[in-house]
Design a protein that fits this description.
Structural class: alpha/beta
Strand order of the largest sheet: 8-9-10-11-12-13-14-15
Distance between the termini: 57 Å
Bound molecules: zinc ion
Largest sheet: 8 strands, parallel
Number of strands: 19
Helix content: 25-40%
Strand content: 15-25%
């Protein structure tokens, strides 16, 4: 089942149009042809004969929000952990996403895509993991999920050639012999085999026509050998694919990077030739001024995930500072297993507040317009979608219609401020993607949520039994991880910021 085809021409009448340059949205009509915005004008805008009229009275239209960083394998693992650092989450990963059948991979992605679109998000950058190696079938299953929901996406196999236990210096040695041996079963597949698998996926990829593109995500720099990261870069550049890596998400990562490479993680990625306009660094909580300047100068992107950064205790990304240094920042939710909803309105609210809590000086705060820009045009740039993230002639008709009679808009004082600080997705009435209504009158047009819930519950029950053994192992390992990694995080590590040059 797929969303109904968009009529050739559509005219949206009666809406207010969000515009960050104006304090309050003004009335405007929008003409769409072939799923693309053809004209925007005052009420009464001319439309060709036969254009389908969409009555948008009492709605506010804003561009579809774009999620710059999430993990569709997290959909079935929502709400599993509470007091988890990133390292405890990584220790739990083998059971959180373990023993998945092909149908589970699609189901998990469908849950995420359905939630995102219901909450006003029209495109996502999905770093999707399969163990021990990525597969064409798995990637197709995830792409199918997005296509069925009607969303755009970049889907990147999230890959490594070292296990978490190999990636943290000293951690294997801290394990008792039996547990150290047991971690062999948690090693990802051979690096060369993984690169060959990614190349095969790239050859086989057939989803570009649906706005669903392939990326490559070497997951965390020190979880990969040099040859492996460079291999990912080579494949990505040879095939025109975007690259995405978690960089400086936790202090443990920052400390480990300095110890292994004698430089920051971002500098190491640059040394490996990865950083550029097609590259997105996720999180960047522990990046310093030189790193942020490097990202800005190379045209790289940063995916800011404030909910996850707080949920996992990683810290606060300096959003205002990064913007001042010229970094392109997109906004993400991160996975449902660590933040836990996929609500971009909440990500905007968190981004604003996480910026403001860092300083008593308002000039060091991100404004609501900055946050709104990150969640739309900023994320679009991270995904490489030049025709999304804003409402202008020539852009895709990816539009969200909010009900102005919903409580979040009573009264409607300042549009962008309320989008960031007051909206929580409960006002979303319609969501249009490429001229097609993926959400109509608050209902998903394409996926039956009752059936989805039934399938998810059956999968949950089956996977809980199937992963019991690997969970028991992970629980034992977590005890060591939970004491070893905070020790690393206690080491001195100075982030050089606000350095005047
Ligand atoms: Zn992530």
């Amino acid at each position: 089942m797929s969303a109904a085809a968009a009529p050739a021409a559509q005219i949206i009448r009666g809406a207010l149009l969000a515009d960050p340059a104006k304090p309050r949205a003004q009335p405007a009509d929008i003409l769409i042809t072939g799923g693309v915005i053809a004209a925007i004008g005052p009420p009464g805008l001319a439309a060709p004969d036969g254009a389908t009229a969409i009555d948008a009275a009492n709605t506010l239209v804003h561009p579809g929000l774009i999620n710059a960083h999430m993990h569709s394998h997290g959909g079935l693992a929502r709400g599993q952990g509470d007091k988890w650092t990133l390292e405890l989450l990584l220790a739990a990963a083998p059971w959180l996403g373990g023993n998945r059948a092909l149908a589970d991979k699609k189901l998990s992605a469908t849950i995420c895509a359905a939630e995102m679109v219901l909450k006003g998000c029209t495109a996502a950058y999905d770093l999707f993991a399969e163990f021990p190696l990525p597969t064409s079938e798995g990637m197709d299953a995830v792409a199918e999920a997005y296509a069925e929901v009607g969303m755009r996406a970049v889907i990147a196999p999230m890959v490594a050639d070292l296990s978490f236990y190999q990636a943290i210096p000293g951690l294997l040695d801290a394990l008792p012999d039996d547990l150290r041996r047991a971690t062999d079963s948690l090693r990802p597949g051979d690096g060369a085999a993984c690169l060959a698998a990614i190349e095969a996926i790239a050859r086989h990829w057939s989803w570009d026509h649906a706005g669903i593109r392939l990326g490559v995500a070497p997951t965390i720099p020190h979880h990969c050998t040099e040859g492996f990261v460079c291999g990912c870069g080579r494949i990505a550049r040879a095939n025109g694919l975007r690259l995405h890596t978690h960089v400086g998400e936790s202090k443990v990562q920052a400390v480990v990077g300095q110890r292994l490479y004698g430089r920051t993680l971002l500098q190491q990625m640059h040394h490996w030739g990865i950083v550029g306009p097609d590259f997105t660094a996720a999180h960047g909580v522990w990046l310093d001024d030189a790193d942020l300047r490097l990202l800005a100068e190379t045209g790289g992107n940063l995916a800011h995930n404030p909910g996850s950064n707080m949920r996992l205790g990683n810290g606060l990304f300096p959003l205002r500072h990064a913007l001042d240094l010229g970094v392109t920042v997109g906004l993400g939710t991160d996975g449902a297993n660590c933040s836990d909803n996929q609500n971009m309105y909440e990500a905007m609210r968190y981004a604003s507040m996480a910026s403001k809590v860092q300083s008593p000086r308002v000039e060091e705060w991100a404004a609501v317009e900055d946050v709104y820009h990150a969640a739309t045009a900023g994320s679009a740039r991270a995904l490489g979608f030049g025709d999304a993230g804003e409402i202008r002639v020539g852009a895709k008709a990816d539009l969200v219609f909010l009900d102005l009679r919903a409580i979040n808009w009573i009264p409607h004082n300042r549009t962008v401020n309320q989008l960031v600080h007051a909206e929580d997705a409960t006002s979303v009435r319609h969501v249009m993607i490429g001229g097609r209504l993926a959400v109509h009158d608050r209902m998903l047009a394409t996926v039956d949520l009752v059936r989805l819930a039934r399938e998810a519950e059956a999968a949950r029950e089956r996977l809980e039994a199937a992963t019991a053994e690997v969970k028991a192992l992970a629980d034992k390992l977590s005890v060591v991880v939970g004491s070893f990694c905070p020790g690393l995080a206690a080491e001195p590590y100075q982030v050089r910021r606000y350095v005047r040059e």
